[in-house]
């Protein structure tokens, strides 16, 4: 397992030295930031795998750092803070932190939290690789990398819009997608189409996915709301 790059955001010199020494001893790569502004710069430029974040920073609250990072990245954030009240933990976790470690902490616990996060990263990466390459639902198979869809091992001849609709539904399988959500994702925020046109595209797609009355239902219509792809056994 490759060692991740860790961004350490801590203004207290003694604690920062303790963390960086621990990381260095255990062969973790790391970069350092002493305040919120520097943390955001380092996060943007280095794109670390894990962020160790103190909340009590001299120029801004760590909660704001979390919210800023969450606006553009899902990089794991482990808060390390002297704030031990439940409300503080809940606020940080609600803002987007992945874990919360209270000061004072042991070196062993810090390393354990990092290992757990690292395992989570590896698992998510593996799942994303599978998800990004192929989707299988019953007799339906979508090869995202090749841009092709198959039903019962026979390639479906889809229009570009039909294929985009199919991919959007498959990547949100089980979820009801509203008309607005679908149209924004297929045609963009400045979409110039209407629900009636969407229904036409969806009807032609369904005819190809469900060619006979005995075919399993892949797409479910939620009248007045939108559509959902059903998981087919």
Task: Provide an overview of this structure.
Residues 132-231 bind DNA. InterPro entries: CheY-like_superfamily (IPR011006), OmpR/PhoB-type_DNA-bd (IPR001867), Sig_transdc_resp-reg_C-effctor (IPR016032), Sig_transdc_resp-reg_receiver (IPR001789), WalR-like (IPR039420), WH-like_DNA-bd_sf (IPR036388). Residues 132-231 form the OmpR/PhoB-type domain. Its main location: cytoplasm. The protein folds into two domains: 5-130, 3-Layer(aba) Sandwich (Rossmann fold), CATH 3.40.50.2300; 138-229, Arc Repressor Mutant, subunit A. Helices cover 45% and strands 21% of the residues. The chain contains eight helices and twelve strands. The strands form three sheets. The chain has a five-stranded parallel β-sheet with strand order 2-1-3-4-5, sandwiched between helices. Strand 3, helix 3 and strand 4 form a beta-alpha-beta unit. It is elongated, with a radius of gyration of 23 Å. The mean pLDDT is 89.
């Amino acid at each position: 397992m490759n060692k991740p790059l860790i961004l350490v955001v801590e203004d207290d010199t003694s604690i920062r030295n303790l963390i960086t020494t621990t990381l260095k001893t255990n062969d973790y790569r790391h970069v350092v930031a002493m305040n919120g502004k520097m943390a955001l710069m380092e996060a943007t430029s280095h794109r670390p795998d894990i962020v160790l974040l103190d909340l009590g920073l001299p120029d801004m609250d760590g909660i704001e750092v979390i919210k800023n990072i969450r606006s553009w990245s899902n990089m794991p954030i482990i808060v390390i803070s002297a704030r031990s009240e439940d409300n503080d933990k809940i606020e940080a976790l609600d803002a987007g932190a992945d874990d919360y470690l209270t000061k004072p902490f042991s070196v062993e616990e810090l390393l354990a939290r990092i290992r757990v996060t690292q395992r989570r990263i590896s698992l998510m990466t593996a799942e994303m690789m599978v998800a990004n390459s192929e989707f299988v639902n019953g007799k339906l198979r979508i090869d995202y990398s090749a841009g092709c869809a198959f039903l019962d091992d026979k390639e479906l001849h889809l229009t570009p819009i039909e294929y985009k609709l199919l991919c959007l539904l498959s990547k949100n399988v089980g979820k009801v997608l509203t008309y607005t959500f679908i149209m924004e994702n297929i045609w963009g925020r400045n979409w110039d189409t209407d629900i009636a046109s969407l229904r036409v595209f969806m009807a032609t797609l369904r005819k190809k996915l469900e060619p006979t009355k005995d075919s399993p239902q892949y797409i479910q219509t939620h009248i007045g709301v939108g559509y959902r792809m059903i998981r087919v056994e």
